Amino acid sequence: MKKLLLGLAVISSSLFFAQKFGVKAGLNLSTINTSDSKAKAGFYGGVLMNVPVASHFSVQPEILYNGIGTKVKGDNDLQTNLNYISVPVMFQYNPTPQFYLEAGPQFSFLIDSKFKNGSTSVDGKDYIKSFDFGIGIGAGYFFIPSLGLTARYIAGVGDVIKEIGGMQPKGKNNVFQIGLVYKFK
């Protein structure tokens, strides 16, 4: 029993020390896929933990602030601003030490929503769902062991607009991210 506990302690500590922590930030280009929406630029940033699980595979959970939304051009230009705390869990394949491919789910929790038309701004909490689920796919390249460039596309799975007057409007978040990542040693 002591050998089993000692073995588990060694494995646990080696996993803890094998992890890398880091930060990332960059640009979001997002839309809500309705017929007349246009891309809106926003910011994302947060922290990550990269956990190697095999020689070429790792799992990378993240906690990110995500500023996304859409623009609708027409007689009255309307901008939708959605701010989320997102928790992506990316499964990464590393064919080389510098390059990786990734895919995984993203869970997003709405913290603020506004509709803006000119100088008028209206709270959107009554119209936007408080939770969004998406699937992400991406890639990254490290120029040096601690600094790299990352790109990811997140496709929303469910509609983010609440039911209004018995009607369920359609609209899923779609986000393209590009940014920098820094891993601490």
Count of strand segments: 10
User: How many DSSP H or I helices?
Assistant: 1
The helix content, as a percent range, equals under 10%
Q: How many structural units, i.e. domains?
A: 1
Describe this structure in words.
The chain has 185 residues and is mainly β. The chain has a single domain, classed as Porin, CATH 2.40.160.20. Helices cover 9% and strands 64% of the residues. The chain has one helix and ten strands. It has an eight-stranded antiparallel barrel. Strand 5 (78-93) and strand 6 (99-117) form a beta hairpin. It starts with a helix and ends with a strand. 25% of the residues are buried. The mean pLDDT is 89.
Task: Kindly summarize this structure in a few lines.
The chain is mainly β. The protein has one helix spanning 2-18; strands at residues 20-32, 37-38, 40-52, 57-72, 78-93, 99-117, 120-123, 131-144, 147-156, 173-183.
